[in-house]
Amino acid sequence: MRVQTACLGLVASLPTAFAYWPSYYSQNVNVYSNQQPDVTIETLFQFPNNGSWISNLVTRRDGSLLLTRLDTPEVWTLDPTNGSAAMLHSFPMVTSCFGISEIEDDVFAVVIGNFSSKTYQPTPGSFTVQKIDFTSASAKTKRAEAQHTVSEIAAIPEAVALNGMTTFSRESHLVLIADSPVGLGWKVNTQTGEYSVALNNTKLRPAEGVALPLGVNGLKALNDYVYYSSTTRMEFGRVKVDSEAMPVGDYETIASGFLPDNFDVASDGTAYVATDPQNSVVRITPYGQIALVGGGQLSTKMPGATSCRLTSDEKTVYVGTSGGQVAPVLGQFMEPAKVLKITLN
Ligand SMILES: *[C@@H]1O[C@H](CO)[C@@H](O)[C@H](O)[C@H]1NC(C)=O
Ligand SMILES: *[C@@H]1O[C@H](CO)[C@@H](O)[C@H](O)[C@H]1NC(C)=O
Ligand SMILES: *[C@@H]1O[C@H](CO)[C@@H](O)[C@H](O)[C@H]1NC(C)=O
Ligand SMILES: *[C@@H]1O[C@H](CO)[C@@H](O)[C@H](O)[C@H]1NC(C)=O
């Protein structure tokens, strides 16, 4: 009864865009609990204000993290050894930053564009891919705290709302970027700026009848496959691709029934997926078994977990959050965005 009441409060507080979620909330909230992996979870850093929203994060070679923000067009840097964070770059003339991925040693591509974190409406045509370079000669001559240069890789005016990004091949300079409302994976050559559609499938499109058109969200290229999360379809899957990132197999659903946001995949195919309004990170084996790693529907440990990133040794998962803005925990609890460290024991 208590849970039922809480769920009603939660649903009542959601924007109408999220009205499709009640069916999900009636599911057993403890569905994963009997397989919980052995982990320790700590908070590394939290922004001061409600409304802050980390959309993605990535690790640098020196062990520090880069965070992209959706509520403001900023990229932040965070030292996980002492929780020290600072703004690295603010992009002019846009509202938001999304996917971020390393394209060469200490060179990163970042998706930016206009998106309202209040109404969830993108501005189609406003999306571009930018480069943050920590290695260029001019970067090295700058002040210690700002040793980077920023330049545009490509504008993609045909895109509706670019979101997660993965480096497909460093050798051929290709990244793949999710276009969430239309269910596409754009392929961008980060050297030439040329772009085209690589992935286009029903499984990447928003579920039918949902008010919020959010299909493919995150992407990750690994071992001849591109893994994807498709949020309103509540599916996590993969498709085999050729060396040009063109599909050569079926879109295979690996696991379903939860709301996947951004994720990372370990070299053995084990995925760590942030479940944003479900306030958790789940682990998915290559065979589709789901286990709760941390947080939970009614937990305030990681409200609005948006993104996961494994360290190169695959012993740690960093998690970024939105503080629960999309669906406050129990319909009420919200907090500023934060970064957690999950140590896989
Ligand atoms: C955190 O560590 C970095 C690198 O060792 C150092 O530059 C920075 O001053 C430290 N910040 C705090 C708040 O201790
Ligand atoms: C994107 O938002 C910025 C900041 O609000 C605004 O200056 C710019 O004109 C917008 N761009 C488009 C294409 O609407
Ligand atoms: C994606 O595929 C659909 C269905 O085959 C097609 O109608 C649409 O034009 C394609 N979109 C792009 C951008 O290629
Ligand atoms: C954030 O919002 C919550 C309401 O969910 C409020 O209790 C809390 O004090 C706010 N925190 C900050 C830092 O403003």
Name its key features.
four-stranded antiparallel β-sheet; signal; Neuraminidase; 6-blade_b-propeller_TolB-like; SMP-30/Gluconolactonase/LRE-like region domain-containing protein; binds 2-acetamido-2-deoxy-beta-D-glucopyranose; Hetero-Diels-Alderase-like
Could you please describe the fold and organization of this structure?
The chain has helices at residues 2-13, 22-25, 137-140, and strands at 39-46, 54-59, 65-69, 74-79, 84-90, 96-104, 107-113, 128-133, 149-155, 162-169, 174-179, 184-189, 195-200, 216-222, 225-230, 235-241, 247-256, 263-265, 271-274, 280-284, 290-295, 305-310, 316-321, 338-344. The model is unreliable at 1-34 (pLDDT under 50). Strands 1-24-23-22 form a four-stranded antiparallel sheet, with no helix packed on it. The longest helix is centred in the N-terminal third of the chain and has 12 residues, at 2-13. Strand 3 (65-69) and strand 4 form a beta hairpin. It has 345 residues and is mainly β. The chain has one domain (4-344): Neuraminidase, CATH 2.120.10.30. 6% of the residues lie in helices and 45% in strands. The structure holds 2-acetamido-2-deoxy-beta-D-glucopyranose (4 copies). One 2-acetamido-2-deoxy-beta-D-glucopyranose is lined by residues 50, 328, 332-336.
